[in-house]
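Model it.
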Amino acid sequence: MILVTGGTGFVGGYVVHALRSAEKDVRVLVRDPRKAERLEVWGASLARGDVTDAAGLRAAVEGCDTVIHLVAVRQGREERFQRVMVDATRDLLAAATAAGVRRFVHMSALGTTEQTKDLVPYYRAKWETEELVKSSTIPFVIFRPSFVFGADGGILPTFMKLARFAPVTPIIGTGRQRIQPIWVDDVAAYFVQAVDLAAATGKTFDLGGPDVVSWNEFWERLKAVRRSRRPSVHVPVRLMRLNALVTERLPGDIPLTNDLLTMLEHGDNVVSDTSAVGTFGLPLVPLDEQLRRAA
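Modeled.
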């Protein structure tokens, strides 16, 4: 039995579906079962609980031999990152150890390093959770995905709406920083293989798609797919920060925050270690095909 945390999220739904397609027994930790109806349709069982409840984690992991941990937050106060990511991962690892779990597959984020851990709270929490996973006695696999693209979640639908409705395409800063987007089904495939692949044990893998592009190149490709001729405009980061001061105070999961701008300014978000390609041997969806699927 595989316990999945974060299974009702964007990436989590694809991971659960891929696991069930591979005929794996799956249990998903959920706060609200009403948001998990499709998971039950796919044949997953549900464990009512929250990652911040240590007792609920102990109950959820009982009888499981593998844990896939996907829960994270991207914005909020420092204490929210500590509670939902760091403390919850520590409690989950303790529960998994007590239950005799033999595999822990953890989702981190590309760009997480000892050098970036003090850049923003998100990187700090990701770095600390990685260190917790590595220091546990459970055999582990850690993935650090780049931007995860999909037609129904993540940041790509927002980009598509901008390309469709905005009179101009706003590009933050110079647009020369590079990214390496990966399709969400490919991310899910990595997680499924990591459950059983001995060669992946004890390793941390950067995950990116087959194409590395600058933000300028990305927007040109996206507009080409949409057959849009709207001009692009480079918006200074300082102006975007003023906008973010307002938007990040709005309710919900806001795509533009000052922390995100800090991460974008820091540099390229591309794979520096290509060992995932050789270890897993998965065919990856090219960027232009990703954009066509989301159009």
